[in-house]
Specification:
Largest sheet: 7 strands, mixed
Strand order of the largest sheet: 3-2-4-5-1-6-7
Number of strands: 7
CATH architecture: 3-Layer(aba) Sandwich
Shape: globular
Keywords: ATP-binding, Cobalamin biosynthesis, GTP-binding, Kinase, Nucleotide-binding, Nucleotidyltransferase, Transferase
Low-confidence stretches: none
CATH superfamily: P-loop containing nucleotide triphosphate hydrolases
Protein name: Bifunctional adenosylcobalamin biosynthesis protein
Helix content: 40-55%
Function: Catalyzes ATP-dependent phosphorylation of adenosylcobinamide and addition of GMP to adenosylcobinamide phosphate.
Number of domains: 1
Mean pLDDT: 93
InterPro entries: CobU/CobP (IPR003203), P-loop_NTPase (IPR027417)
Catalytic activity: adenosylcob(III)inamide + ATP = adenosylcob(III)inamide phosphate + ADP + H(+); adenosylcob(III)inamide phosphate + GTP + H(+) = adenosylcob(III)inamide-GDP + diphosphate; adenosylcob(III)inamide + GTP = adenosylcob(III)inamide phosphate + GDP + H(+)
Length: 170
């Protein structure tokens, strides 16, 4: 398992796609974004346009553990991105965030093939002014710590440059 972290437009998604494409396909792209507005629809379209066959895309804005567990054994899986999944969970009034995070960690640990996870590193900025944003930043940081401990490799992408924090550089 590889965890790829980076800021907005850091190049983390392209880097993660390259990691997966270096393996034999077909590849599975698990998308967590939801197109709530026109700007997000454009972002989703840009991501999809970068990928051609043998990529298969499934949308899993909420049941990310199920998508990971449902992947064909041995098939490389790319999840993009964890912070959108976390946002979706936090905005769901009925969500048990601790249980869902635990299920995600278990699914990642049990993945039946290569798994690359992409997430936004949001902890480098200022302390947000509102409680929801502070909670999001804190939950993302805790999720990254737990996944970083579980991952075989952790890469931070800054200005399109990958820096390996844990494990071997591919």
């Amino acid at each position: 398992m590889t965890l790829v972290l980076g800021g907005a437009r850091s190049g983390k998604s392209s880097y993660a796609e390259g990691l997966v494409e270096a393996q034999a396909g077909p590849w599975l792209y698990v998308a967590t974004a939801q197109a709530w507005d026109d700007e997000m629809r454009v972002r989703i379209a840009e991501h999809r346009a970068r990928r051609a066959a043998p990529w298969k895309t499934i949308d899993a804005p909420r049941d990310l553990p199920g998508a990971i567990r449902g992947a064909e054994p041995g098939r490389p899986v790319l999840v993009d991105c964890l912070t959108l999944w976390l946002t979706n969970a936090m905005l769901d009034d009925g969500a048990d965030l601790a249980a869902e995070t635990g299920a995600l960690l278990a699914a990642c640990a049990d993945a039946a093939g290569p798994l690359v996870l992409v997430s936004n590193e949001v902890g480098f900025g200022i302390v947000p002014e509102n409680a929801l944003a502070r909670r999001f930043r804190d939950e993302a940081g805790r999720l990254h710590q737990r996944l970083g401990a579980l991952a075989d490799r952790v890469v931070l992408v800054v200005a399109g440059l990958p820096m390996t924090l844990k494990g071997d550089h591919p």
